[in-house]
């Protein structure tokens, strides 16, 4: 018995070393674009044009910041606030109502449940760009352009998030607890808010990160719906930094991109513990 254990250890050690090497390689590969972006934000336009790939920071960070603040279309604080309002509202609406819809698909027995879920899957297959033109025309006719609501309220219907939360709830949500709450006289919304949500919090945090990042980086719809400068989001402001080929300040553009990505890192680090908890919970259940 001891000889077999030793053989397993001998075989597993090279595999563990190889696994660590592969993980470190992919971690470096994932972080490399962000490192290059931060370093290029400290370099001048000439340095970026001459050597786009460099791992040595330069001394032009403050000058790039002055170039950014001198632009008429770039107001970092205003852009952060606008993007934060849209992304936070979108994330809250999408995560809460998608979880509520998935709960209805798992916890209730009704005739059209499978047909409704098939409809959700069908809507997932429709690209967003297909409906964008019609959506813009409708918002224009009801005078809802230059407003944050058209960018927030449609997040209530998020088919992909409904699908993910349903698949998470099927093995993770014990319906016996829900039935016990009903027997004790607990209302449905109270059951959902106080019992179901704490149990699926890791999945909600994961989807919240994905939704926040997607909403923060969204450019197409905000660019056609928001035409007033005071309503511009950070991606719109960064996209307007690039002028013609003779006037583009690449160092300032990289600095604008770095400022745009910074809130995404903050949100990830705030919610990463829930993701780790969800992975650990899944490992224990398995």
Short description:
The protein is built from 14 helices and no strands. With 286 residues, it is mostly helical.
Write structural notes for this entry.
- The chain is an all-alpha fold and 286 residues long.
- It folds into two domains: 2-63; 73-240, MetI-like fold, CATH 1.10.3720.10.
- The protein is built from 14 helices and no strands.
- The chain has helices spanning 2-40, 45-50, 61-70, 76-107, 113-124, 128-141, 149-152, 159-172, 175-183, 188-199, 201-216, 220-225, 234-239, 250-285.
- Helix 4 runs antiparallel to helix 11 (201-216), helix 9 (175-183) packs antiparallel against helix 10 (188-199) and helix 11 (201-216) runs antiparallel to helix 14 (250-285).
- The model is unreliable at 282-286 (pLDDT under 50).
What is the fold's blueprint, element by element?
Layout: H1 2-40, H2 45-50, H3 61-70, H4 76-107, H5 113-124, H6 128-141, H7 149-152, H8 159-172, H9 175-183, H10 188-199, H11 201-216, H12 220-225, H13 234-239, H14 250-285
Helix pairs in contact: 1-14, 3-14, 4-8, 4-11, 5-8, 9-10, 11-14
